[in-house]
Amino acid sequence: MKLLGSPRSPYVRKARITLLEKNIACDFVVDRPSAPGSQVPGHNPLAKVPVLVPDTGRAVYDSVVIVEYADHVGSGPRLIPEAFEARIDALRMEALGDGITDAIVSLTHDDRYKQPDCDPNAAWYQKQLLKIERGLAALQNEVGDRDFCCGDAFSVGDISAGMALGYLDQEYPSYVWRDKFPGLKRYAAKLFARPSFQKTVPAAA
Ligand SMILES: N[C@@H](CCC(=O)N[C@@H](CS)C(=O)NCC(=O)O)C(=O)O
């Protein structure tokens, strides 16, 4: 089994954390979809990563489906609970973490926000920033004084939340989320200490 992806992509990191948490052996193949000769479009017509290519069977994309796949074939505690309400809670938190990440990508892609002519008061900038701030406030509220965002167990919601917070550090280090959201500072410190997070910290650009 192999996972295709770019090392600094947040969704690729989400997939890698998932595979480690589920004890699934997998080769990580660095493959940027826009690079000439990339295998990605042959597996995913959208030409996006991550793509999981099992030894037999069809390729699996996107990261949401990779988590579902890994939860089924891997071992260890479930990432998506079976019970209906807990399942919806975990999937909602996954959507929240993924949505915050989408907003960070919109703000920081190609260092857009660092350009000299970038106006932080511009409508497009404020729109994405508001998504990030409201999203982080909602996440902090959900976590409260617990270690996980859903109940008492690690879930896909924590993977997506950790992906988003790690991506802020990676791409938007001037945004002082730990000062603004001290509850998330405590929560993230525990998440980032997990071996799956430690082993997938992207190398510096
Ligand atoms: N919703 C997708 C998002 C995947 C995504 O946007 N991947 C980016 C890298 S972070 C990508 O492959 N971009 C290349 C492109 O859009 O052409 C997921 O959860 O996997």
Description:
The protein has 205 residues and is mainly α. The protein folds into 2 domains: 2-73, 3-Layer(aba) Sandwich (Glutaredoxin), CATH 3.40.30; 84-198, Glutathione S-transferase Yfyf (Class Pi), Chain A, domain 2 (Up-down Bundle). The protein is built from 9 helices and 3 strands. Strands 2-1-3 form a 3-stranded mixed β-sheet, with helices on one face. The longest helix is centred in the middle third of the chain and has 25 residues, at 84-108. The protein is globular, with a radius of gyration of 17 Å. 39% of the residues are buried. The structure holds glutathione. Glutathione binds next to helix 1 and helix 3.
Tell me the layout of helices and strands.
Layout: E1 2-5, H1 10-21, E2 27-30, H2 40-43, E3 51-53, H3 63-73, H4 84-108, H5 123-143, H6 156-171, H7 177-180, H8 182-192, H9 195-198
Parallel strand pairs: 1-2
Antiparallel strand pairs: 1-3
Helix pairs in contact: 1-3, 1-6, 4-5, 4-6, 5-8
Bound molecules: glutathione (GSH).
